[in-house]
Design a protein that fits this description.
Layout: H1 7-12, H2 14-26, H3 30-33, E1 36-39, H4 42-53, E2 58-60, E3 67-71, H5 75-85, E4 94-96, H6 100-106, H7 111-120, E5 125-130, E6 147-151, H8 156-165, E7 169-170, H9 185-192, E8 198-201, E9 212-215, E10 222-225, H10 231-238, E11 243-244, E12 268-270, E13 281-284, E14 297-299, H11 306-321, E15 327-330, H12 338-350
Parallel strand pairs: 1-8, 2-8, 4-6, 5-9, 10-11, 12-15, 13-14, 13-15
Antiparallel strand pairs: 2-3, 3-7, 4-7, 5-6, 9-10
Helix pairs in contact: 2-5, 4-8, 11-12
This protein binds threonylcarbamoyladenylate and magnesium ion (MG).
Magnesium ion binds next to loops.
Length: about 350
C-alpha cells in the first residue's frame, strides 16, 4: 500500500501545496469548497497521500476518533489545520507515525517512554517527550514548545496513510474546536464540510475516546489525559505509580489543550442523574434511566460494558444534542478503568462554557 515519497516531486509541489493550504485556510477556491467523502481503500488512500504531500487536509479514521491530518513538517499545512478547525493556535497537535523507529527520529525517548511505546504501540497512547534537536515537526504544530506529542495509531487506514504521505501527520480530532470529537465520517462532514479536501470513511472508531496522553519529560511521568490505556495499565508496565494531572485546570501549562469546556454540546448535561425528568433527554448506562418518560433515551451500554460505552459516547451525545433539548440527564458511570476516561469527557462536556 506504500506510495513512494519522492522528495523531488514533493519539493516541486511545495508551492502548489502552500497555495492549496492557503485556500483551505481561507475557504476560497474550488478545492476547499468541495469535501469528498470516500470509502477508505488502496486507491483513495493513495489519492489522500498525494493531497497530504501537496499540503492539503484529509480526515482519517483512527482506532480512537477521526483525525484531521496534514503533513506535520509543513508550517503551511499545519496552519491550514488550525484554520479549518478554528482552533486556538496555542494548542499543540499530536504527530502520528507509522512506527517507533520513525517516531524516535523526532522525539527523545527515555527509559519509561521507550518501555511504554514498545508495549502499547501501535495503539491509543500518546507520549509527550522532549523534541529531538533535529526534530522536523513544525514549531507551529508544537505550539512553540520544546516537547513533542507522538503516537503510532493502530488503525490500518491511518498507518497506510502515513506511509502514503511519506511524513509524520499532525492530526487533532477532526471536529470544530470545542465540539464533540467525531467517531463517524458523517460527524466529520457535519463539522468540516467545505473546509477540507477529503474524508476517508472506514466506519465507526473502535475505541471512541481520544488517546491517553502521558508526559515523559524530565522527572516522573505524568498523566495528562485519560483514555483507553488506563493509568493502571501504565503503572503495571512501569512498576511504579504515576501522577494524575489529567484533572488540571485549562490554565495548566503542560497541556494547553485541556480546555475545561471541551466537547461542548449545546444542551446542559446533568451528570450522575438517578432518574430522568420530563422534557429531558437521557444518556443512559445499564438501563437505570429506562423508567421516566423522556424525549429520547440512548443507552451507552445496556449490559454495562465500559468499552461499548466509550465507543458510543460521542455519537450518542451528538444525537441527543441534535434533538434541541435543553438538558440531557446522564446516568451514573462507574469510575474504574475506562469509566475514568468516560467520566472525564462527560465532566468536560458538562463544564461551563469558555466565554
Ligand atoms: O486519539 C487521539 O489522540 C486523537 C487522534 C486523531 O489521534 N487526536 C486528538 O488530538 O485527540 P487533539 O488535538 O484533539 O488533542 C491533543 C491533545 C491536546 O489536548 C494538546 O494540548 C495535547 O494533546 N498536546 C499536544 N502536544 C502536547 C505537548 N507537547 N505537551 C502537552 N500536551 C500536548
Ligand atoms: Mg480534540
Amino acid at each position: 500500500m506504500r506510495v513512494g515519497a519522492d522528495s523531488s516531486a514533493s519539493k516541486s509541489s511545495d508551492k502548489q501545496g502552500q497555495r492549496n493550504a492557503r485556500r483551505d485556510g481561507e475557504m476560497s477556491g474550488d478545492q476547499a469548497r468541495r469535501t469528498r467523502l470516500v470509502p477508505a481503500n488502496n486507491d483513495t488512500i493513495a489519492e489522500a497521500g498525494a493531497i497530504l504531500r501537496a499540503g492539503g487536509l484529509v480526515a482519517m479514521p483512527t482506532e480512537t476518533v477521526y483525525g484531521l491530518a496534514a503533513d506535520a513538517t509543513s508550517d503551511s499545512a499545519v496552519a491550514a489545520i488550525y484554520a479549518a478547525k478554528q482552533r486556538p493556535s496555542f494548542n499543540p497537535l499530536i504527530a502520528h507515525f507509522a512506527n517507533l523507529i520513525s517516531a524516535r527520529r523526532e522525539g527523545e525517548f527515555g527509559d519509561a517512554a521507550l518501555a511504554l511505546a514498545k508495549t502499547f504501540w501501535p495503539g491509543p497512547l500518546t507520549l509527550v517527550v522532549p523534541a529531538s534537536p533535529t526534530c522536523r515537526v513544525s514549531l507551529l504544530a508544537r505550539a512553540g514548545l520544546d516537547s513533542l506529542a507522538l503516537r503510532v495509531p493502530a488503525h490500518p487506514v491511518a498507518r497506510a496513510l502515513i506511509e502514503a504521505a511519506g511524513s509524520p501527520l499532525a492530526a487533532p480530532s477532526a471536529n470544530r474546536s470545542g465540539a464533540i470529537s467525531p467517531t463517524l465520517a458523517s460527524h466529520v462532514l457535519a463539522d468540516l464540510d467545505g473546509r477540507i479536501a477529503m474524508i476517508l470513511d472506514a466506519g465507526p472508531c473502535r475505541v471512541g475516546l481520544e488517546s491517553t496522553i502521558l508526559a515523559c519529560l524530565d522527572g516522573a511521568p505524568r498523566l495528562l489525559r485519560r483514555g483507553a490505556i488506563t493509568r493502571e495499565q501504565l503503572e503495571q508496565r512501569l512498576g511504579f505509580s504515576i501522577a494524575d494531572d489529567s484533572l488540571g485546570s485549562e490554565a495548566a501549562p503542560l497541556a494547553p489543550g485541556r480546555l475545561l469546556s471541551h466537547y461542548a454540546p449545546r444542551a446542559r448535561l446533568r451528570l450522575d442523574a438517578p432518574r430522568v425528568e420530563a422534557g429531558e433527554a437521557a444518556l443512559d448506562f445499564g438501563g437505570v434511566l429506562a423508567q421516566g418518560a423522556c424525549l429520547k433515551r440512548l443507552d451507552l451500554s445496556p449490559r454495562r460494558d465500559l468499552a461499548e460505552a466509550a465507543a458510543n459516547l460521542f455519537a450518542f451525545l451528538r444525537d441527543l444534542d441534535a434533538t434541541g433539548v435543553a438538558t440531557i440527564a446522564v446516568a451514573p458511570v462507574p469510575a474504574h478503568g475506562l469509566g475514568a476516561a468516560i467520566l472525564d469527557r462527560l465532566r468536560r462536556a458538562a463544564a461551563p462554557r469558555a466565554p
